[in-house]
Amino acid sequence: MHKVLSDKRTILLLVLPGLLIYTFAILFPIILSVYLGMTDWSGIGRPNFIGLENFKKIIFTDTTFWKSLRNAILLALAYVFVQHPIALAFAILIDKVGGRAEKIFRTIFFIPCVIPVVVTSRMWVSLYDPQYGLINKILDFLRLGFLKQQWLGDMKTALISVIIICMWQGFGWALLIYYAGLKGIPEELYEAARIDGATGVKLYTKITVPLLKPVIKVNFTIAIIYALKQMETVYLTTNGGPGDASQFLANYLYIRAFNSYQYGYANAISVLFVIACLAVNILFQKIFKPENYEF
Amino acid sequence: MSKKALKVVVSIVVIAALIVSVFGLIQGNLTASASTKKTVKIKFLSNLPDRTSNQGKLEQMLIDSYMKANPNVKIEVEALQDEPYKQKFKVYVATNQMPDIFMVWGQPSFFLPVMKAGYAAEIKLDQIKGYGFKTSSLKDFMYNGKLYGLPRNTDFMVLYYNKGLFNKYKVKVPTTFNELLNAAKVFRKNGIAPIAINGKDKWILAILYQELVVKEGGDQKLIYDAISKKSVAKNQILLKAAKDLVNLVNVGGFQDAFVAADYGAANNLFAQEKAAMYYMGSWEVGMATNPNFSESFKKNVDVTYFPTITGGKGKKTDILAWHGGGYAVSASSKVKNEAMKLLLYMMHPTRWAKIGWQQGLVVPGQSWDKFMTGKETVLQKKLTQIFSSATSVSGTVWQDAFTPNFKTEAETLCQMLVAKAITPEKFLAKIEELAKLEVK
Question: Which PANTHER family match (chain B) (predicted)?
C-alpha cells in the first residue's frame, strides 16, 4: 500500500480530479475575468482587446468606483466599531441571564438572520417611508418631529440608512459568534480571578476580551468581507441612489455589466475588487497577529 | 404427447411470445417517438410577470389559445419584471442560449446591439402584410433595412389624475405648468402626494425632463440634436427645463422620498388614492379595469395631456410617443419556424390589437380605431383622443436613443438633479461630457 501511495503517478492520479475542478472552477474564471477586463466587450458580439484602458479609466476617472469602495469601507467600520461592541455586550448579557430567558433572547436576536434579505429590505423600506413609515411616526410621537427625514430618498441620509439596515441584518450572526466564544471560556478562570480580587468590568477586560481575540478576529474578518461584497440590500432599497450616494462595489459592478452593457469594464472592476479584498485581508492579518492561549 | 414433443411445443410458444413482445416493444417505441417528434417546445421570455391583468393577461390568453389550436405545441413562459428581465436576457445572450421568442424594447440602447450581432431572426415584410403596422412604428425594430421585431404597443406619456381628489380640494386640472405647481401646493397642504412617480427607476425622471424640454422649446428634435452635436451645456432651453424640474421638486410636486420609490410603490400610491396625479405612459390603460384596484379609484381615474409652459413654445399636443415593447424570434432557435408562426399568430390584428383593445388591456402598436365598440373605458377614450390629436411625437426617448451606457449615466444624472446633488448647470455640463464620451 505504502509503495502504491508513494508512487508519483498514483499521487498525480488521485490529485487530478481536485486539480481539474480547481483549475476550471476557480483559476480559469479568474484568468478569464482578467482577460475580459482588458476588452471593451459589451456582452454581445466579439470582444476587442484594449489593454489596460479599463483599469486606467476606473482608477483615474471613475469617481463612482471610489465612492463605492469608500461606502464599503464605511460599512466595514460601522460593523467593527458600532455593531460588534454592541453585539459583544449583548452576548455577555445573554450569557449572564441564563436559563430559559437566555434561549429566548438568543432566538429573538437571531431572527433577522433567518429571514430572507428581500423580506427584511422591504420591511425597512416601509419603516423608512416618510409618509406611513414607523420611524417618522415614532419621532412624531416622541415630539422629535424636527428629526424626521426622507431617509432613503435624501442624499444626506441614504447611505447611513442603508448601513443601519445592514447592521441590523447581520447583528444576530455577530452576536451568535461572540456568544459561542463566550461559552468556550472556562468558568474556573473567572473564579480564580475573583479569588484574586478582580471584579466587575475588570473581569471582562482582563479575561473575556483577551480570550475572545481569535473569535473577534474571525468575526471582524466575516464582517469586512460581508461589507465589501454588499449587494442585495443596496439593490433592494436604493439601488445605489440617489445618484451614487449609497452605491457599493458589487452593485456598481452589476449595473455596469447588466445596465450599461459594459461587460469588459465590469470585469476590470471585479479584478480591482478582488485586489481590494486581498489588500484588506492582508492588512487585517497584520493587525491581528496569531496568538495562542492555553487554558 | 411425449416429453420431447411437449418440450418442442413449449419452446415454440416461448419463442413466439418473445418475438411478439419484442416486435410490440419496437412498434410501441416507434409510435411513441413519432408522436414525440411532433411535439414542439417553444421557450417564451416575457417581461410581463402579472399574468392576470393588463398586457400579461393578454399575452397569456393568446399563448393558451395557440396551444389549444395546436395541441402539439407546448409553450414554456418565463416572465420577469423589467430590470430582472434585462439581466436574464443578457445572461441568455452571453451564454448563447436565447429563448425561441423573446420580448424586446425597440430602442437603440437595447435592441440595436441584439440586431447587429444577429441574435434576432428576420421577419419578412410580406409576412405582416395587412397587419396594420405603420412603417414609422417598425423603424426601431429594423436594422440595415431588415425587420427583426414587431412592436406590441403604442406608448405615450400622459398625466393620470384622480377626479375625486381634484373635486374634493377644488383644484383645477392643470393645463399649464404654473397650474401644476399651484395644484401641487394645495395637495401638499392637505396631506395628499401631488404626483406619484417612481424615481428609484430613474428612467421616468429622464422622460419627464424631456417632456419639459419639449414643452419649453416646442421642438421634438432639440434634445437629440444638442446631444449629437455635443453642445448641451449652453443650451438655454435645456437649462430652463432642468430648472423647471427642480422647481417642481422644490414645491413638493412629488411624493416624499420619491427618489427611493419603485414602479409598484408609485402605482400603489396613486391607486390607493393617496396621490392626486401619476406621471406615466399609456400602457397603464388597464388601471380602469384592474380587478385589484378599488371601485372608488376606478371611478375616479382620468387622464390628460401633460401641461404646457407659459412662455414655452411647446403645445399640449406635442407628445412623447414611441413604440417600445415588442417581440422577436431567436435566429438560432431550433424551432424558428414554429416560433415565428406563434409571433405572427399573436400579433395578428384580430388578436393582440383587437382583443387587447376591446378588453381595455393595451393601447396596441397597430391601428386600433376599427376595433372601437363604443363601450371603451374613460381612459381608453381619452387616450385615443390624446394620441389622435398629437401634432408631433418624439419617437424613442432621448436616453434610449444612444448607447446603453449613455442611458445608465444620463438617468443617474437626472436622479442626481432631482435629488439636488447637482445644479441644473452642472447637470447639463455632465450630460455634455457624457455625450462626448458616448456619442460618436
Answer: ARABINOSE-BINDING PROTEIN-RELATED
